[in-house]
Amino acid sequence: MPATAPTWDPAQYLRHAGHRARPFTDLLARIPDLPADSPRIADLGCGPGNVTVLLADRWPAARITGYDNSPRMLERARQYAGPTPGGGHLDFAHADARTWTPDEPCDLLVSNATLQWVPGHADLFPGWIDRLAPGGTLALQVPGNFDAPSHRLMRELAGSRRWRDRLDGVLRHDDAVLTPEGYLARLTAAGCTADVWETTYVHLLTGDDAVLDWVRGTGLRPVLDALDGDPAARDAFVHEYRAVLRAAYPAQAHGTPFPFRRVFAVARKPAGATGEAGR
């Protein structure tokens, strides 16, 4: 959720909902027990809410708030709001990750595929951890595929002679996410024990131009926004990008294999820690 956030299309994003949810369920499986029986949970960058509801399955009595800065995503997410079957409650609210801080101590702060949009997000970790309850957890997942053809080819095309004047600075790369070692260093420096790992999923996507269809919901959004006022230029960029994606990700008999690396971190605040949340 950067200063100029992309314009999100929930329907496009959810076209690959099953594949996109897999990293969240893997992250969820590594989160330890929380310190409260009715924990307070924040999902920062909740998107359309389809994975936020999984938190209530793991912690039925939790009070859960999903935060996002996209009105369209929040509108879609609010279909899940209300009491949960286990006696908890789920709601959604607008927030900007650059400035957001919990309004009360959290037992779990989770962020799934959001922080790559927040420049300097690791600088926010100490403040978030300070607002965790003793024994609470910060858990995150970010894409680690910025060197993959899907992203590299997009940047190369945006930087070509035809497009550079219109798309200069629209796409980010080196500063988008840290290495696993970088997250480990930042989280342990903030006083947490940290479990950090990476996984490469090989999604088998179906349909025509399946990788293009995927990135239309995420990584291509800044380009589509930048060219939104010129539909002919937008379509021309997509046409060029489609051609290089087809060469990089050839369709096979059962679909298009799409390798996707992701980085995960689960950081637990010591049970005896103080900070603001422990006072």
Q: What is the terminal-to-terminal distance?
A: 30 Å
SSE sequence, one letter per element: HHEHEHEEEHEHHHEHHHE
Number of domains: 2
Biggest sheet: strand arrangement:
3-4-2-1-5-6-8-7
Q: How many DSSP H or I helices?
A: 11
Characterize the largest beta sheet: strand count, sense, and whether it forms a barrel. Answer: 8 strands, mixed
Shape: globular
**β-strand amount:** 15-25%
What's the β-strand tally? 8
As a percent range, the share of helical residues equals 25-40%
The CATH homology group name of the largest domain: Vaccinia Virus protein VP39
- Quote the average pLDDT: 94
Return the structural class. alpha/beta
Instruction: Give the name of the CATH architecture of the largest domain.
Output: 3-Layer(aba) Sandwich
What is the subunit organization of this protein?
single chain
Features of the shown structure:
279 residues, alpha/beta, Rossmann fold, DNA polymerase, domain 1, 2 domains, eight-stranded mixed beta sheet, 8 strands, 23% strand, globular
